[in-house]
Specification:
The structure is a single chain. The protein is 0% helix and 37% strand. By secondary structure, the protein is an all-beta fold. Strands 2-27-26-25 form a 4-stranded antiparallel sheet, with no helix packed on it. A 4-stranded antiparallel sheet has the order 3-4-5-6, with no helix packed on it. Strands 7-8-9-12 form a 4-stranded antiparallel sheet, with no helix packed on it. A hairpin with a 2-residue loop joins strand 8 and strand 9. The N terminus is likely disordered.
Length: 371
């Protein structure tokens, strides 16, 4: 597959240091009882934060259902949901496959999904196989223009999978741990069952084991009561945010605290129910469907599918937001900050739910201003 790419020279950003496969069995009570976050009142004026400061420019075109993008030693890598391929984007206007993840069973929202880069350069991959979703670790060899995917080590498998609500975002947190979002896979009650892997945010070491600091000792479960979380990011002070697809009423932006219950399927959106943590912001699904998310300079950048907008949320006022590029590029799946400081975001119009335009799918870059 060809790609038309224009990449600025990038400098490598150091990956988070690693700190590892375990089951999701949970004891009766968590180590700590987290206090729910206090949303900033609507209308509160945010402090100065990173803002979009120019027009998007194409960096890649003619991609096929791209889902996640990361940078490894300054080289951008992109997962294609249906083909199972991981692409390396080059500076000369081309792309090449560094390998195909074997056994990917693509159907509906399932397939090759999230990517994350470990501190040693290994590539961590979330994908759907016949037996369920899995998290695998791949060594990567070679240099820019000749990268190659090695043989995988499966860290976790058997995560419930489905053509809908399949989760799939993975990212290393500032603590060096790997965080994994899982959808309820249509098993609504599993979201409230701490012994089930569906409807959760998981936290593991790079070796796949449950870290000592997890809220339920011996368990990978970090938070639960989720329907379909697909974006995670951390503010400079370590606050963790997650986006979540609702059902018919509210999509959500949540602040994630260890051991907390986010309510699904008992509640959706802000419910003010004891025992559940409310989102700090909610949107009607038709204007949102928030997927991948990035943080830069005190601002969250959220890619939205049905809403077809890039939404910015100031960390200092998380109940407020601003929309950008409405309907201009179609469905947006992921966002990340490039090593040169620009924001990259990926369209998702060839996934079977969008209306492909000439050159779709594409990756675009926009400069950011930091006050």
């Amino acid at each position: 597959m060809g790609a038309a790419i224009l990449l600025a020279a990038c400098t490598a950003t150091p990956d988070p240091a690693p700190p590892a496969s375990g089951s999701a069995s949970a004891p009766e009570t968590p180590r700590t009882t987290p206090a729910p976050p206090s949303p900033v009142p609507a209308g509160t004026a945010p402090t100065a934060a990173a803002t979009i400061a120019g027009n998007p420019q194409e960096v890649a075109t003619r991609l096929e259902a791209p889902w996640s993008m990361v940078f490894r030693d300054g080289v951008p890598l992109v997962s294609e949901r249906n083909s199972g391929r991981i692409l390396e984007l080059a500076t000369d206007g081309s792309s090449r496959s560094i390998g195909t993840v074997e056994g990917v069973a693509a159907r509906g929202e399932a397939g090759l999904l999230g990517l994350a880069v470990g501190s040693g350069g290994d590539l961590f991959v979330y994908s759907t196989a016949e037996g369920g979703n899995r998290v695998q670790r791949f060594p990567v060899t070679g240099t820019r223009g000749s990268l190659s995917l090695g043989q995988p080590l499966t860290l976790l498998d058997g995560i419930p999978a489905a053509g809908n609500h399949d989760g799939g975002r993975i990212a290393f947190g500032p603590d060096g741990m790997l965080y994994v979002t899982t959808g309820d896979a249509g098993r609504r009650d599993d979201a409230q069952d701490r012994n089930a892997l569906a409807g959760k945010i998981l936290r593991m070491t790079p070796e796949g084991t449950a870290p000592a600091g997890n809220p339920f000792p011996g368990s990978l479960v970090y938070s639960y009561g989720h329907r379909n979380p697909q974006g995670i990011a951390w503010a400079d002070d370590g606050t963790m945010f997650a986006t979540e697809f609702g059902q018919n009423t509210w999509d959500e932006l949540n602040i994630i605290t260890p051991g907390a219950n986010y309510g699904w399927p008992t509640v959706e959106g802000i419910a003010e129910r004891a025992g559940f943590v409310d989102p700090v912001q909610q949107w009607q699904p038709g204007s949102a469907s928030p997927s991948g998310m990035a943080h830069a300079g005190g601002t969250l950048f959220i890619a939205n599918l049905r809403g077809q907008v890039l939404r910015t949320v100031p960390v200092s006022a998380p109940s407020t937001s601003t929309e950008h590029f409405g309907q201009e590029f179609g469905r947006l799946r992921d966002a990340t900050v490039a090593p040169d400081g620009q924001l990259w975001f990926v369209t998702n119009n060839t996934d079977g739910r969008g209306s492909p335009r000439q050159g779709d799918d594409r990756i675009l870059a926009v400069p950011l201003a930091r006050d």
